[in-house]
Write a structure and sequence with these properties.
Elements: H1 8-12, H2 16-52, H3 56-75, E1 85-86, E2 94-95, H4 103-110, H5 115-118
Length: 121
C-alpha cells in the first residue's frame, strides 16, 4: 500500500533542505521506474525479434536510422527562391517571378518597360 501523498500545503510548510531531499528521492524513483520500463520493453522487443528470427539490435538500429532520416528531412532548410526581377531605380523592390505580379511591375509595364529590362542578370 502506498503512503499518503503530500499536498502543496504540506510542502509549503517544509524547510528548503527537506524539500531538496524529497526532490532527490523522487528523481531517483522516477529514474528507477524508467529503467524498469526500458528493461520490460527490451524484453518484449527481444521476444518479437526471436519470433521473426531477427536480432533485436538490428531492429533497434533500423528504427534509429529511420528516425535520423526523418529528422534530416525535417531540419533541411528550404532555399529562398532567386530574385529574377528588380526595380531599375529602387533596388529594394524585387520579385522571384512566383505568385502574383507585384504592382510596381505592372506600373512599369504600363509605363512602357519590358520584363526583359527588369530581369536580373
Amino acid at each position: 500500500m502506498s503512503a499518503p501523498l503530500l499536498t502543496r500545503e504540506d510542502l509549503r510548510d517544509l524547510p528548503l533542505e527537506e524539500l531538496k531531499e524529497l526532490q532527490k528521492i523522487i528523481n531517483s524513483a522516477v529514474d528507477d521506474y524508467y529503467k524498469l520500463q526500458v528493461e520490460k520493453a527490451l524484453a518484449e522487443a527481444q521476444q518479437v525479434a526471436d519470433k521473426y528470427g531477427v536480432d533485436v539490435a538490428d531492429v533497434i538500429s533500423g528504427l534509429q536510422k529511420s528516425e535520423t532520416k526523418k529528422q534530416a528531412r525535417a531540419t533541411r532548410a528550404k532555399k529562398a527562391p532567386k530574385i529574377k526581377y528588380q526595380h531599375p531605380y529602387n533596388r529594394s523592390l524585387s520579385w522571384t517571378g512566383r505568385g502574383r505580379t507585384p504592382t510596381w511591375i505592372e506600373d512599369l509595364l504600363e509605363g512602357g518597360m519590358t520584363m526583359d529590362e527588369l530581369r536580373v542578370e
